[in-house]
Amino acid sequence: MIKWLGNAGFEFQLGNTTLIVDPFLTRPRFVQTYFGRVAPDEAVLRKHIPRCDAILVTHAHFDHCMDAPAIALRTGARVHGSANTCRLTQAAGLPARQTHEIASGDSFDINNIRVSVLPAVHPWIPGYTFGKLRRKLEFPLRLRDYRMDACYSFLLEFEGTRILVWSSTQPDGAPRADLLTCRAVSSQRWYDTLLGQVQPNLVLPQHWDDTYQPLSNEPQPFFSAPRLAFPPIGRINLQDFAAKVHQADPNCKILVPDIFMPYRFEAL
Ligand SMILES: [Zn+2]
């Protein structure tokens, strides 16, 4: 079973294991995000994530990492992420034994799920910082406290099914997978390259919705990067994404999942 949690967040129910990638359900408003401090919304997390065994974090920016410690503290899940992710979650109160520092090239098992950690390239976005964490972290944190040290993609293998969570802005170096989730804004050539390598049966977009809107609203496409055209700022166009994926591989299915709707793999 796969469930989209908004932004880059996905829940996978694989056998008896609930594995979540990049949970971010708190979604503080724009002004709060850029000028205030951000704290997890426990009520929202409790409502939508009643149980969880493992959390994989692609990188330590707040919109991927900030809700992980609260979920792990309540459910007992273990958080797998970079050194910065582990330090941020420990500073939020998670015991060190519930964190697992990972690096590109690692492979490990979560129950009977094989997880492979792949390197990923992250885009530059104003306010989203890189590098070492501050020595003193004062909670709740500010956006700039969530510094990225490394970014990962993940390959999950379970009973012969391969799921690729592709976080990178680069399309090269991707392994074969049955199910692929990737960014919704790229060139035709980008999708040609990525899908040519992965050869998936199904593609889902990720990180396409406006995360400044609370989850009580219907997800809306996020603003896309400024461009030399009119209007200079548009919103991410999922029809354009679907058309590019279709052109890259006409046999590949595309799913834009409803938020929090569980989809059984057999039905996809
Ligand atoms: Zn980021």
Structure summary:
This protein has 268 residues and is α/β, with parallel strands linked by helices.
The CATH fourth-level homologous superfamily: Ribonuclease Z/Hydroxyacylglutathione hydrolase-like
> How much helicity do the residues have?
10-25%
CATH topology: Metallo-beta-lactamase, Chain A
Largest β sheet strand count, sense and barrel closure: 7 strands, mixed
Can you walk through the features of this model?
The chain is an alpha/beta fold. The chain has one domain (2-267): Ribonuclease Z/Hydroxyacylglutathione hydrolase-like (Metallo-beta-lactamase, Chain A, 4-Layer Sandwich), CATH 3.60.15. 21% of the residues lie in helices and 23% in strands. The relative contact order is 0.15. The mean pLDDT is 93. Residues 59, 61, 122, 128 line the site of zinc ion (ZN). Zinc ion (ZN) binds at residues 59, 61, 122, 128.
Topology overview:
Blueprint: E1 2-6, E2 9-14, E3 17-21, H1 30-35, H2 42-48, E4 54-56, H3 62-65, H4 68-75, E5 78-81, H5 83-91, E6 99-101, E7 107-110, E8 113-119, E9 152-158, E10 161-165, E11 179-183, H6 188-198, E12 202-206, H7 238-248, E13 253-254
Parallel strand pairs: 3-4, 4-5, 5-6, 10-11, 11-12, 12-13
Antiparallel strand pairs: 1-2, 2-3, 7-8, 8-9, 9-10
Helix pairs in contact: 6-7
This protein binds zinc ion.
Residues 59, 61, 122, 128 line the site of zinc ion (ZN).
